[in-house]
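Replying to the earlier thread about multi-chain prediction with a worked example.

Input:
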Amino acid sequence: MVQAAMTRGREARGGGGFQQHKLAPYAFISPFYVLFAFFFLAPSLIALVLSLFRWDGINDPRFVLARNYGRLVSDKVFAQVATNTAIYAIASLLIVLPLALVLAVLLNSKSLRFSNVWRAMYFTPVVTSTVAITLVFQILYSRDTGLLNAPLIYLGLEPIYWLGDRSWAKVAIIILIAWRSTGLLTIYFLAGLQSIPEELYEAASIDGASMLQKFFRITIPMLRPIILFVSIIVLLSSIQIFDEPQILTQGGPANSTMSVVQYLYERGYTRLRLGFASAVGTVLFATVFILSLLQLQWYGVFRKED
Amino acid sequence: MGERFGQRLGVVALHVVVISGALLTVAPIAFMIYSSFKTTTEIFTLPPWLPPAEWSFKNYETLLTTWHFTYWYANSIIYAGVVTVFVLFFCSLAGFAFAKYFFRGKNFLFIILIGSTMIPFQLILIPLFILMSRIDWVNHPASMIIPWMAPAFGIFLMRQYIQAVPSELMESARIDGASEFRIYAQVIVPLVRPGLTTLAILTFLGSWNSYIWPLMVLRGNEVITLPVGIATMRSQATASQIPYGEMMAAATLVSVPVIVLFLMLQRYFISGLTIGAVKG
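Result:
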């Protein structure tokens, strides 16, 4: 029907107007494609080509075939940073995601008073500057006078060396990630909860179902597509993590908190190993590409349910 | 009666859990603001709720006098503001085309648009930086603005909003002899203000809080942004003399205005985040 209306509109105008109508959409979308070609597509292709070269940005690039990838695979530091990044991703999936899901259910409860106030409080980390809040956490993590160690200090116990110990430093980053992202994931889950028909819960209540039964038998199955969607968002953002470890620990101690993107930044930007860093970027791209395909798959899932 | 008592207990427990979690969430922000009135020594004194010996804006004064804080602030506002204006224009225009026109190659072009979101920024970090240095955009505001003027997600977002505008409105304007651009400017734009507000908030925030890109392309106190500037405050000091008091004042000035903005426009912000997730 809309198409018919459009055709009628076109016929009514004729002449030059007809031409304008045909060309206008191309003009309207062209800024995106020009910018995309120049600033995203071209650099992406350069990255793929550059990953086959050795180049410091000054001397002539030297073709080395797949040697950058070979080095990457055998590099102990890369193995370390890939493990660290995987730990961040898994911790986000297993800790932050369930936390956000439970929080969304609690915030969605009808018996909760002033729900908007609490929601706003939970959402503030989403908009807070990562750099600013990471500096705050740095103070909170301080060994001898940090707030997080205060209970241990008062009890006369050995304080935790949050940012100086290889394992605790990872925990410190994960706590920060949890603080930063729980609110965001809660927003997604709350949106998903709106789509569950109220009748399902009412019927379950009549059948005498408990709160927990409703949660596991209705909420979780009904939210399945959203949970999958959020899982992929979590994985994608974990893979691209940079700000938190860069500010909090600079990747230390001894690379124990360094993420893949930090590694890429350090090798490419600081040490000017441009070819090698491009190989890291390409590996990252392949990972993200596969995850994004999965994500689009879930978009399809949503559309069917709409 | 026992059941009702149990229900009440449940409601109380719900409030206890939700409220303590909420307080825990805002605690670091409260700590930041509170600390901005303390000296560095006082910040590192337990317990943290101990008030400063003397309430003063000294950290804020030092921030403005000894650091280039006003430059950083102005730069952040300019970069984020200009980017936002361009994003609103280009994304709504392209979103309009994808929502309301039928044209050859539309599906293919739309697939490219969606596919472009699969390129992680990190892949192009190094080559884009090389490109910037080749065209002399390192340390130039253009590097913070021009590549970011038409993000795919913004076009997708605006397309969602513009699809909801009835096509009949366009048709009657067209019969009245309005040009395609005038239809966009005078029919579409006024009707999708909520969508534009949403996109404006997301874009401004993204630019305001961005770190890795300005860290790479901007150098020198006159051009860097707030997050980069604040990180510099720490890296430039020796370990024993990191000006935490001033850094907390800076952190407060970066985040509090944005938080207030968020509280005022929360509705738009949340609809922007969830439009992709739920409506597909």
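DSSP finds 14 helices and no strands in chain B.

Feel free to reuse this layout for your own posts.
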